[in-house]
Amino acid sequence: MKHAFLITAYKDIPSLNRLIDRLSSDFYLYIHIDKKSSIRKSDIQTNKHVFIYRRYSINWGSFNHLQAVLFLLKKSLKIEPDYVHVITAQDYLCVTNQAFDEFFSTRKGKSFMDYVKASENWWYVVRYKYYWFTDVIVHPKSFDFFSHPVIRRILKSQKRFKVNRSHLGRFNDDYIYKGLVYVSLYKDAVKEVLNYLKKDSGFLRSLRYCLIPEEFFFQTILLNSPLKNSIENENLRYMDWGFRNGISPCVLDESDYNAIVESGKLIIRKVSDSSRVLLEMLEGREQNGNS
Questions:
Q1: Of 11, 50, 78, 105, which one's alpha carbon is 20 to 30 angstroms from that of 143?
Q2: pLDDT at residue 287 is higher than 80
């Protein structure tokens, strides 16, 4: 099968090059480098399977991240992939390339993403209920927005004037779904998403002022589509959402090895230079004949 990986990157050149070295012999890689990043194209190893772009300046939680993913998605259509996988430069396969391909070959037609109905969690609703200006204001990843004077004033003003958006495009509260943007989509699901945007341009516009809008995008379109029964509520990524060294999800290391192997996941997030021993352990397991 033909796989395209859509990769957003803004730091950690060694991890990005290690990922390219691992994937590009078998798969196609479409990489977007944040325009604010110090990474240069010349820093990145390339070959005929690697395509690099630098189009958007991306703040955490901003609409431009979704824009970058959509940009890469459309670029990947040139190779007519069977599957597209959204990852970051700090992800890595925890199975062999062959085992990765075989997994999807035996589940052809299925797409994989985690999802919940947004209305079941008040915080998810707040993220589209109010207007967030993440492309122009850098929001703290700690979610302590009331410590930021400008954000605090904006939110208080909206509460005072009873701002309460209940729709994203044509979808009201009952039809809005939330999940991570890190998805693995079959080609039919990709076509469904892009065709929907042609019918309802208001959906994308309404996401512009959401907080972390990409987490409503694929899930809401596909779970309200004729393909909803082909969506598996599983994103195939191993992540540890606990705080380690002040970061969540935390950077994985060799202490996570057993949990990763036992999880049955295909991709780990996230890794850095401090994960080198873990990656050597996983690759040693592959060389010993374990997928």
A1: 11
A2: no
